[in-house]
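User: Can you help me understand a structure? I only have the sequence.
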Amino acid sequence: MTPAAVQLERAEAVIGGRSIWRDVSLTVGEGEFVSVLGPNGAGKSTLLKAILGLLPLAAGRAEVLGDRPGAHNERIGYLPQRHGFDSSTRVRGADLVRLGLDGGRWGVPLPSWLPGVNGSHAAGARVREVIELVGAGSYAHRSIGDLSGGEQQRLLIAAALVRRPRLLILDEPLDSLDLPNQSTVAALLQRICRSERVAVRLVAHDVNPIQPYLDRVVYFAGGAAAAGRPEEVISSQTLSRLYGVPIEVLRASDGRLVVVGQPEAPHVHTERHA
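Assistant: Let's start by predicting it. Here is the structure, written out as tokens:
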């Protein structure tokens, strides 16, 4: 058994006196690529807050990196939801990655020649290493605003990885990308899981572009959650139980999943609900 990066046992989250989800049990192992799915308002972001220690559980138990949530956030890489940089953003990609090392402490990247906390040649070497890891070496010294959405996303992932986290959390990082780039970023994250032994937890609206790369999924709906392999969770039986209405999961000839329900299909799988 691999060590657990995240473990919840019969957990409940309450916000403003309202239960968001309850009786949730799940485990994310070291080096696992797990996607968090579900309709808007089902509790996906609430789960991220609970993992980071920003929202105490109302019931149950949570353990993150072998300790209470929030105890080791410096070992967690976090990429919040965003919708791209515009062309006026003149920060170089490499400097954005460097912010992952010393930006939280100093506010700006420090020159590589400056002695001190992170202003060292070792820090510069780590920045170059992680840029190569995500395949961004050819454009890392260009302004981030001049890059495509997929190129920007690679550099943001590099920034989240630069401090060698054991857990990487990404909140809807694929929403602003086209389908080919979604699959490319998912393949990159799978490779990082395997090579760096980093547990990756990715919040997504559509499982189809990333399904081939996932180890497991966690699906939130109806105030509860189901966790397991994609084919186990995204099934007619499991989704019908979560939503409390008949749900049918169909597989198209190209392998894509189509979810049909009454009175309306779960909106995690269709762009018009994004």
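Now, to help you interpret it: The mean pLDDT is 86. The first helix runs from residue 44 to 51. Let me know which part you'd like to focus on.
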